[in-house]
Amino acid sequence: MPTQNTHPLKSIPLHLPPGILDSPSRQRRHTLPASEFRCLTPEDAPSVFEIEREAFISVSGTCPLYLDEIRHFLTLCPELSLGWFQEGRLVAFIIGSLWDEERLTQESLTLHRPGGHMAHLHVLAVHRTFRQQGKGSILLGRYLQHLGGQPAVRRAVLMCEDVLVPFYEKFGFQAVGPCAVTVGSLAFTELQCNLRRLASLRRNSGC
Ligand SMILES: CC(C)(COP(=O)(O)OP(=O)(O)OC[C@H]1O[C@@H](n2cnc3c(N)ncnc32)[C@H](O)[C@@H]1OP(=O)(O)O)[C@@H](O)C(=O)NCCC(=O)NCCS
Description:
With about 210 residues, the protein is α+β, with helices and mostly antiparallel strands. The chain has six helices and seven strands. It has a seven-stranded mixed beta sheet, with helices on both faces. Helix 4 links the parallel strand 4 and strand 5. Bound molecules: coenzyme A (COA). Belongs to the acetyltransferase family. AANAT subfamily. One of its GO terms (biological process) is circadian rhythm. Pathway: Aromatic compound metabolism; melatonin biosynthesis; melatonin from serotonin: step 1/2.
């Protein structure tokens, strides 16, 4: 099973013990990065859930992952997550896990199947104040590249409302039909993306 120590994008959060007086050089080292992409850890779960609460619960009364489920996936497969932090604050994130069937089922909402070759993107969300600035697109692009660096992962899959299908199509996802999963009265389209095809398209276009 993959461990956190193998994350190519992982960086260590900086914490200053209170009351410690730092020299100017130490203070510089503890300045939070203006912009940082890294895999998430279980400690990031509250910040993730805060964004979900506004993005989903306030709109539909439900959300893709509740706090314990966020912690569950960030413990089991943090390498399938990616967060964008600005000055230490989470502004956008994706959480994924592995799936080993051709299509999503109700079980895929809660399970991580380590032997699977398909990354299931449970949730992508951008903090309300940072939407419509290209951040969701940048993060998704980086995430797909990050997945491309994991040899076991061949495809990516997600379910979304019809209105967002064109957004995902821009990244090489293709609709494969109505998703078998429903949440309350909400229905979703299932989309899949062939990561190898995407990588070869990137190579051919020189990106
Ligand atoms: C969907 C989301 C991740 C997009 O991130 P973003 O940073 O706002 O998106 P970008 O600025 O990179 O791109 C904007 C594009 O997103 C798409 N988009 C975003 N929200 C949309 C919505 N509610 N309806 C339709 N299209 C939408 C459009 O294609 C838009 O392009 P346009 O402005 O040219 O029409 C973000 O709006 C969000 O967090 N929404 C709430 C949570 C959510 O719905 N997540 C998706 C779950 S599948």
